[in-house]
Input
Amino acid sequence: MKPFRVVSLFSGAMGLDLGLEETGKFELIAAVEKEKSFCDTIRKNQAAGRLPKQLRVYEADVSLLDPETILRDCGLKRGDIDLLVGGPPCQSFSTAGRRGSVQDPRGTLLWDFLRFVEGLNPRFFLMENVRGVLSAALRHRQLAQRPDRGGSVLDEDELAGSVVRLFADDLQRIEGGPYHMDCFEVNAVNYGAPQLRERALFIGNRYNAVIDFPNPTHGPVAGSQVVDLFGGPGLEPWRTLGDAIGHLNDPGDVIMDFSPRKKEFLSLVPPGSNWRSLPEDAQRESMGKAWFAKGGRSGWWRRLNFDLPCPTLVTMPNHASTSLCHPTETRALTLKEYAAIQEFPADWEICGTASQQYAQVGNAVPVRLGAVAGTVIARKLQELQSREWKPFGKAPESYRVIYVQSHVRTRQWFKKGQTFVWDDGGENGHAVYERPQTLRRVSTL
Output
């Protein structure tokens, strides 16, 4: 069978695309990316034979590109593309920072993706984003002005989830539809990635097909046993930071390292701990006002450990508040280690300045997650192909949001005045959270 044809938007360093190619079922025919250094990465790996020769690379702003251009250049017509994939820039929806929602111009890139769904009319689409997009509001109201603080009742476009609801409404109305869409909240670590990374995956199709994402294949270890949260057979233990980088004899020479001042503080932190292992005067001096905060501080002066999955990679590993310090060396994780954690091929080359290279790898979709999603979509495409593309029955009544244990807490850092240091090779049972109560939940838009 011929591979299914893929067009990629917001391609970046191509983590999602590499995952699709790993299945052996897809062929990437066009990639659109705005940043020059990111395009240089794509072209360099293409020249080295790691990407298809016929791949067309568009160094362009998606918002200014006409979908018809891609169809014309590739000699295709509307409806010929099997899969459209992409992850619109997500900072405006992230719960890690100030949420601007679609007041931030980046938010409108969701609708540029939708414009390409309409323009290309693909059989399927896969859109990836931060999990926070599912709760984002079209218009963000400051916490101090909300009803529980004395403010007026929230308008409809200020309600949580209004971004996705509007996107879903517009998806129903595009020419060439209707498209059914299933949204999945997942965590890459549950499928064998050595990294905690929550993502939202939107899978749409124009054949009334209801898509199901698989239950996790990997789980946490309690003592010597894998904790089988889903009751299925043969769960494997989570893969760890040690699994990803423990074998690297040469960590590479590209690194955004900590300053000498930061290294002074980190040198006092043992593996598997964070700012809580510092003397109180050093905590206050180094953390400023953050020392008085009540939450969100586990990343301050964090030194990693080999026996747990890596925390979510960020674009700059050398920030004091989100530090990714090597377990046994007082330095940040290198670019080569970043790429290994994201499971890029060992020979994959990244172009640009150090900060541009880290941004490409840190923002990428874990290759493993792309492969899992690609397998799900390829199976459904093959089933439809065997049906000669006959749609399934009538369209489902609503779009679904399926939560698949995406929120994972690996360990405790502090409780009742006690600091917990996770010792590699130790039992560490005192720092393990209880099993989560909600494993899989289905709701509708």
Observations:
- The mean pLDDT is 92.
- The two ends are 36 Å apart (CA to CA).
